[in-house]
Design brief:
single chain; mainly beta
Length: about 90
């Protein structure tokens, strides 16, 4: 799939930092690829964090993505820092 701006929303903003929420059916391997978020290059700043719910129609993952770079219209985020662990039940 491709990035959809409607799936990205602001949770909080302060002092030039924005905390975002993003949800998608795409897996982390796609989302943390350079250029995935380029459609939002005018909104995302280096250092912003994105709370992410990924692969929501498969094996869901949740975590935090850090906007690592944004230049020339290309956004790159660091690999997903996963939140939670496998449920051993």
């Amino acid at each position: 799939m491709a990035f959809k701006t409607k799936d990205l929303s602001v949770l909080a903003y302060a002092n030039g930092f924005t905390l975002w929420h993003f949800t998608t059916i795409d897996p982390a391997a796609d989302v943390d690829t350079s250029g995935y978020f380029s459609g939002a290059s005018d909104m995302l700043r280096v250092g912003d964090m994105i709370m992410a719910n990924l692969d929501t129609d498969g094996t869901p993952q949740a975590g935090i993505l850090l906007v690592a770079s944004n230049g020339g219209g290309t956004v790159d985020v660091a690999n997903l820092t996963q939140v939670g662990a496998t449920n051993g039940d």
